Amino acid sequence: MKHEEWKKISRIMSKRSLWMVHFCTGCGAMEMPPVMTSRYDMERFGIFAMATPRQADVFLVTGYLAVKTLKRVVQVYEQMRDPKYVIGFGSCTINGGMYWDSYNTIKDLSKYIPVDVYIAGCMPRPEAIIDSFLKLMDMIDKGEAIGWQKYRKYYDQYKRNQKMAFEYRLDEVKPIKEDDKNES
Amino acid sequence: MKAKELFPDAQELRKGRVRIELDKEQITDALKKLKENGYTHFVMLSCVDWIKEGKFELVYHMWSYEYKEHVMLSVKINRDGEDVVSNRELFPQIETYEREIHEMFGVNFVGNPRLGEFILEGWPHMPPMRKDFDTEKFVKDLYYKIPEVNEE
User: Fold this and answer.
1) Domain total for chain A?
2) Which candidate, A116, A107, A122, A20, places its Cα nearest to that of A65?
3) Quick one: average pLDDT of A133-144?
4) Exposed site from A124, A147, B54, B102, fewest CB < 10 Å?
5) Are B7 and B31 in contact (CB under 8 A)?
6) ipTM of this complex
């Protein structure tokens, strides 16, 4: 068999066995118990929580992130092994949500780590969470969930953004292309 | 003895709520006096920024299980770096409140050895709970200006 075909088979296998890191931030953690237990039962899709990041595939960022929490999130994300997927959970990870003017929460998660699927809502219903998992499975099957490859490819840009947030200053900003500056 | 008898100029806001305004030199003695007279529970220490007056108001909240009475000791200090004496020998939990107020408002408590980084990590700017700290401008200048990851 060709290499591509093996890849396809491994994608079919891995989409049916997603292990989720047990790392909960913000209020989204409260939505997880009904999804995990008998009422909605996400285990029937092959998803369950795993206590260590090194053995997990999916990272749910469940809510707002203070800069202090972002440091821990980046550490956990970097400990996970490839392939790894991130689900941004609730409006706080999209644009800050109700913390849009808070001095110590980040506003857009995808500036710091790559996000494959976002769920809108404050908070999202358990149906929406399961729907996002199905969407993620579909993306894995088609080979579209490539956030972990983006993190490798644009590592310097992600690290630069993380450093700006961790140090609360933009000092390191340099125009990425000199041409852009000249045009304006 | 109730707070009203200990401090004649105490104002009773309503039943079970007493407010006492003090100078900052009197605060340690007042806390000691209350502690010896039944007000054994130190509830919390809070700080208010009165920017138009140029003052910080420190409020020491005390509670008595005996009289069911909440006493607020209010001390006003200048905003521009006036020192306050730490009262951590009287009630050890004051130390944590002092650390927080030092970090969020920049008030210096003399005699507290643990003032320093507490909740915020590596914060290089002005203490963020002061009213002259423009939160919205800070957010717009920092988080909204962090560039998107540029995919080429």
Assistant:
1) 1
2) A107
3) 91
4) B54
5) no
6) 0.81
End-to-end Cα, chain B, rounded Å: 76
Domain of A50, in residue numbers: 3-183
Token pair, residue A14, equals: 């891995």
Cβ–Cβ of B143/A165 closer than 8 Å?
yes
- The answer to whether B143 contacts A106, with C-beta atoms less than 8 Å apart, is yes
Question: Is A166 within 8 Å of B122 when comparing Cβ atoms?
Answer: yes
CA distances from A132 to A58, A82, B16, B22, B48 (A): 12, 20, 53, 59, 45
Q: What is the CATH number of the domain that holds A75?
A: 3.40.50.12280
pLDDT per residue as tens digits for the range A58-116? 999 988 999 999 999 999 999 999 889 999 988 999 988 899 999 999 999 999 999 99
Q: What is the DSSP letter of A125?
A: P
CATH number for the segment(s) B3-145: 3.30.460.80
Q: What is the DSSP letter of B92?
A: T
Write out chain A residues lying below 8 Å of B143, CB-based.
Answer: 96, 106-108, 165
Interface of B with A in 86-125 (CB under 8 A): 119-125
Dihedral through CA A31, CA A35, CA A37, CA A40, nearest 10? 130
The three-class DSSP label of residue A47 is strand
